[in-house]
Design a protein that fits this description.
Structural class: mainly alpha
Number of helices: 6
Largest sheet: none
Order of helices and strands: HHHHHH
Radius of gyration: 23 Å
Distance between the termini: 56 Å
Amino acid sequence: MRTTILITSPDRWTAPGLELFEFAPIFPGGPEWLTKPVLIALLSSVIAIALCWAAFAKPKIIPRGWQSIGEYAYLFVRDQIARPNLGADSDRWMGFLLTIFLTVLIWNLMGVIPLIQFPVAAHIAFPLVLALTVYGIKIYLGVRHHGVRGYLRGIVHLPGLPGWAYGLYAPMILAEVFITSLFTHFVRLFANMFAGHILLAFFSSVGFWFLFEQLTPLGAGLGVLGVLMTIVMTAFEMFIQFLQAFLFAMLAGMFIASGLRGAH
């Protein structure tokens, strides 16, 4: 049996990998949990609170400055997420949905902020915690408003379905409501931010290496291409970051509505 050993030379470019998501504690000998993603998440919370405070602490009849930005965000969440899913209950849940949307959006945008450059949602624990919170609220609302039996009956019931078919249909729909929905909620956000971070790191690494670290006539073109792709991918990634924040908040609204109405 022959063993192949890969030796990485300091003069050879290597693509970034999973080491981008490995973080040591901020302080040597400090708590293992206190890492860069945790600090970024805390900073994101401060930014979200500061934005809402600046926008709504002293509202004016004619909005200006931060109030205008805050009202645009509020109206977007209300009209595109809350009302289509929750209808008459939308105002009661606006605070929660706006918080979810702003938190995830700021988490994501941290991936393109210079010197920070890490989207918090690319660390699976953070979107998982938000998804579990929404999941718990969904189950609580369903049981509170309909009881355990009524909630389960509302999920399983399908008008016109023959009785014998429930043996196949019921396990699938229950698995979708109580298992699959949780995973699809946070995995979609995590996977997109994870992949986007890898791509941005890849192209920026190519540009930096072939233009600054090992500049050669042949490599210069590749380095320029890396820089151009970094710019293009950054713009595209910002669109994806906004889209994923919207989808995560929209699914939160849908799940809350399903608990209130007792249906899947």
